[in-house]
Each structure stands twice: as structure tokens, then as C-alpha cells.
Amino acid sequence: MAQSPRYLQIKQYLNDKIQTRTWPPGFKIPTEIELSEQFSVSRMTANKAIRDLVGDGLLKRTPRLGTFVCHKKAESPLMEIRNIADEVRNRGHDYSSQVISQNSVEAKDDVALRIGVRNGTMIYFTQIVHYENGVPIQLEERWVNPDFAPQYLDQDFTAQTPNEYLVQTCPLSDIEHTVEAIIPIGRIISLLEMNEGEPCLLLNRRTWSDKNLISTALLYHPGNKYKLSSRTKV
Fold it and tell me: Per the confidence metrics, is the pTM higher than 0.90?
């Protein structure tokens, strides 16, 4: 490393601190002035090292406050349905959930249309927050047709996720996904512990089993903590 450019030495030093979690997510790193003095370089050199790591998504600059280690974004595949609890545990992290609502509701307007029932039909509804290491990464609002999952409301969704139960009960045959970026409203901000004005990823999902439309769900993710990925063979 001694033969590498000075800014790369600083970048490697910062990256090592981040990867070994000597500096955990949220940690405020030394200033450009402090780094330039430590490595006997100009502020411009220290700035380039920091800018590179900001571009890599490892650091985040906050005006007037400093530069902080980023929380690594959780990632889910866009074209597949995976159990979020398994995703979190496969990353070596702790999964937990909080059930906000679990009851019967009338299907009205857009929800009735999306789940394919008459307006006013009684259907099942759950609202659940999913956590990774105690940090909320997804708010799930799901409506289920009781004709195909009659025991849905009897389940303990802190012990298993709705996805896990429905896959076992109604093996999936088709899925539909649409994704949009939104600025969330009050209840979503509160449940996902977001700040006002922060963007949110909203995944609209519908699932079928043997041509029967089983459920429709809205999955909200904090934009700064989550990303969706897709891989397609060509």
C-alpha cells in the first residue's frame, strides 16, 4: 500500500475501519482536516478518498454535521418472492416483527378491484412491521381472500410471516410486481421510523395459486435502508 497514491491509502484506511465495524453504521468519521493532518496530505487528497467512499455507498455526508458511516441497505430480489425473515437471517442478522393489525375488513374500491372481489366483500387484512437488528425495513399491508386461506387470521405472525404461511397453504403459481418511489404519509413515517420528506420504495404485489387470486399487498421500504434487485437471462 506504501506505493499506492496517498488518497488510495486513506480510502483503504477508512474502508478497513468500516468493514471491520471498528466504525459501525452511524459513526462520524474524522474530518478532512483531521485526515489531512494524520496522513500529511492536502485537504483535497483527503476529500477525494471520502468522495470515493460516498460514491460507493459506504459513507454519507450530512451538511454542517459531518460524514457518517452508512447503514448497509437490505436487498430483496424483485422478480422472486422470498420470505423476508429468511433474507434477514441469511445475512446473519436478527429478524423480528410487530403485528399492528390482524382482522376482517370490507374490501372497498381499489382494494376490491385488486383482489378481484365485489365492493363490500369481507376479506382478511394484516399490517406488520418487519425488523432487521431492531431497525424497521418493511411495512407490509396485505389483503387476503378468505375463500382460499380461511385460517389466515388464526396464525401467529410473529412466529411466521404471512408470506411463509400463504406459500405453504396456497402454493404460488403467478406473481405480479410494480414498484414506485413515494413520499410516505404520517403513519408510514412513524411505523418505519423515517424522517419527514424521506423517499420510500413501494412494492405492489399480487399473488395467484392455480389461477386463483389469493392476496394483494403493499410493501413499504425506507429508501435509505433498502433496495430491490433483478437479474434476467438474455
Answer: no
